[in-house]
Amino acid sequence: MKKIVILFYTFISITILGQNSLEQTSSDTEIKIDFKKFETQFYKKKETSQKMKGNISILLPENGLIKFILNENDLIPNRIASIITFDGKSEDGKFSMKLSLYNNRLSAIIKTYQGKYYVLERSGISSSDHYRIYSLSEAMKKEAFICSANVEDFLSKTHDGSIISKSVTNFPIGSQLRKYRMAVAATGESVESLGSADAVLNEIVSKINAVNLIYESEISVTFTLISETLNKSILFTNSATDPFTGTGGSAGQAGFVIMNNSGLLTYNKYDIGHTVNISTSGGASGTAGGQPCNDSSKALGWSNWGTQNSLGFVTNLIAHEMGHQFGASHSYNATGGDSPGDTFCANSWSSSGAVEPGSGATLMAYGTNCSYPVDQRYPSDNYESYFHARSLDQILNRIQTLSTCYTVVASSNTPPAANAGADITIPKNTPFRLLGTGTDANDANLSYTWEENDAATANDKGAFGSTLNGVGGYTAVSSATAPLFRSVKSNINGERYFPKLNFILNNQNVPPMNEGEALPNVARNINLRLTVRDNNASNGGIDSDDLNVTVVDCGPLSVSYPNASGITLNANSSATISWNVNNTNSIANTVNLFLSIDGGLSFPYILASNILNNGSYVVTIPNIPATTKARIKVSALLNPNVEFFDISDNNFTIASACEAFRSYISPTFAVTTYAGSAIANLNMTGAAAASEPFSTKSIIFNAPSTNSAIHGYSSADNVTPISFNDNYPTHLVQFRVTQTGNYTISKNSGFLITSVYTATPPNLSGFLTSNSTGAYYGVVNASGSTRSVVLNEGTNYFMYLCNFSNPANANTYTLTFNGPGMVYETINTPSGYNYTYIAVNNSTNKVEAIHPTADFTVLPIGSYTVKGLSYINTASPSSFIGKTFNEIVAMGVCVQESSNKRQLTITGVLSTADIKKTESDIKVAPNPVNDWLTVVSDKNVSEYEILDLSGRIIIPKSKFHNSIFLKNLSTGSYILKLFDGHHIIYKTTIIKN
């Protein structure tokens, strides 16, 4: 099998700025695929009946180059010549794909382990090898459709109560995949617009293949196309003679009735029907309802789009309309439309589904609509490709009670288990924080979504935030029933602040209306739902758990001192912290006082614990480093995972002689080993002193020290790095990142070459990425953003900037770093301070061991958090053992923890009996090994994994085939793990020659 070569470059839109310099802007990422080379994998296999396999590597904007293993899927039960569909899974199992191969092109939809979707399709460039990749949510920001479905109207006629919200007894799902036979018909207008039935079939197959990824991930449902669609007998070629009169879901159902009566397509041949209408006139819309498996309504689905609409947009359109067919109603709570006279948002509002404030953000919402007469859209993340908890309830209830004609496909996935915690009581108009948890036997990539599950009443219709009245004449914050909190796309830690932390820190406990983050101003109940997704690459597993929040008529809790701007407090001095209780002591009789020195992003210092919630307490400001970004938090801890709180509105200053420095340790990956193992010696070097982290940086281009050669990409192929001329000054920014991942660096405006290197001065061998293309002594183009590149924590990077001014022209630029972490600069380490590492017992929060290079081989069995510690050299580190961090601070020691951490787990050693039993069951040879390691086992072995002695994964879990190829490993010692399913059955050390 030949290796696939993927070339990529940023889409160029050029504006001339001056001689030999061009600026470009970009929204999509352009990649070049050698299609003929890709297709050669399948030439000889097309004539066989065996399922085809292959691979492709795709550069994802935020994740880098990902290799996918492709397997032909069952969307097309019996292969046809014109189009082939594949399931793709990344080598590490974290990414999934649906790929369609047809008509000398391919298209694909990709899901990352974070739950984000990307779309790959051919671009508008004439060359057939040029493709663009973009996020699915971005596609919805550029295009919009109108859905006139009224699911309640259908339900009232059929007496179907499945749309009513059910409890979480529908969950978990994901242990099996439910398959429906799908009939997709096309109007004669579709064939007339595209020129042939084959072209329409390609459109249908590629779109339903993409929809399958969403439905398999979200509700463990998949669709297979029936032969009448695939043989084009229901893809009509003449608009005058097709069976469809008018448009919309009812027209679609009527057409399917005609096909049944004529014998063209009888009801017993399909479970769900859908009609597509493709036009050249533009615009998109849909109408759907009905019920799969019910002959009288199972084809009540209709999607209309134009030839210019993107794959991503149409995928979401069809997924939305099919959601209606499975009983999901619109989930937004908005009125109006998009222009004067529009009422479609009001007309399609759902009394049983209006759980998202404003126009909403999830699949069944109206995220990019409802902008007139008042804009009810969210300013960001306003169209996401997942179902709201209410939609999941409605769909799963329909599937499990009425639409039961599916067939079951076996799945090896085990669904996750969600735990939202116990019900709580909080005061009104007071921020609160929730932490949900989840477990899963076979997936580590869990993501968590907290959502409100309160449907607006008729009088709540259109009530939004604290400023927009609904039909009843009141705002959402003044309602006892209106939805307040938007759905926020999944995160990986199960935590959510209400409202978002950035609003609280910006003195906006009452955020702007369009944010969908409104705290209640009256007593009421709020029903919250935690949904945990396992993001399994084969089919998704989901579980949900409810948490009821009772809001009582007291509060808000609010900090009163220090709260104003311009306050300075001294370290090692007393201060009176005060807050407004407002009867919140009726809920929580005690509170905790915390101190932040980074503007409220973290609160590592405990000033007081479990003190009376009476409004005032005298604390000692500890001997901590000086800061101008101190904040106070007053917190009432209701249980370990829930608090209501307030944070002071403004930063204040702490004057201090303590110079213990901020730091970021590296690496941060978790390590698991047995007691006494050498692997517990983490062998870490002292971390550098760090500046405050930032994501944006302003620079004035007036102090370059030298004229340096700077590099970008050759305009000949947009791939090869080349050197531009060196007759101009350059500006250097040295930085590190707080978290490993893919980053881009963008500028606000103006011509500026931005190139990043691993070394200084800049050279081709150290070149990493740039925003520029051009030729030596030729025209140079500078886009708005660099290409995505993986940056590693703990590594120095050197960013050289050049605007071709000589002498430097003192222009000001704002640079934005986009990635999973933030950016910092290393600074000089203050004299008189040392650095060491501590292992904190996770059960007691006390320091168990301390060592300057993190040698923790002495630790007993347990779970530990490893942190760095800068401290004044007059202190004795041994005195830290057995104390919490705050107890160390209370000793008066000048000390500062690292801003990040890593986990270390120490397990027991196998008993002699277990070792002998394992040795008798499994043998590996030769050891040491050169190329191939053979495993002989009496046990079932499904997968293997190779780690280095620090616990870092070198070869991720891979399918086991008796022999393991290790030729490409570097010389050294490694750990081999063998698995039976998801259980480790054998672990040993191997030596690679």
TrEMBL record:
<dbReference type="GO" id="GO:0006508">
    <property type="term" value="P:proteolysis"/>
</dbReference>
<protein>
    <recommendedName>
        <fullName>Peptidase M12B domain-containing protein</fullName>
    </recommendedName>
</protein>
<dbReference type="Pfam" id="PF13583">
    <property type="entry name" value="Reprolysin_4"/>
</dbReference>
<dbReference type="InterPro" id="IPR001590">
    <property type="entry name" value="Peptidase_M12B"/>
</dbReference>
<feature type="domain" description="Peptidase M12B">
    <location>
        <begin position="178"/>
        <end position="372"/>
    </location>
</feature>
<keyword id="KW-0732">Signal</keyword>
<dbReference type="GO" id="GO:0004222">
    <property type="term" value="F:metalloendopeptidase activity"/>
</dbReference>
<dbReference type="InterPro" id="IPR026444">
    <property type="entry name" value="Secre_tail"/>
</dbReference>
<dbReference type="InterPro" id="IPR024079">
    <property type="entry name" value="MetalloPept_cat_dom_sf"/>
</dbReference>
<dbReference type="Pfam" id="PF18962">
    <property type="entry name" value="Por_Secre_tail"/>
</dbReference>
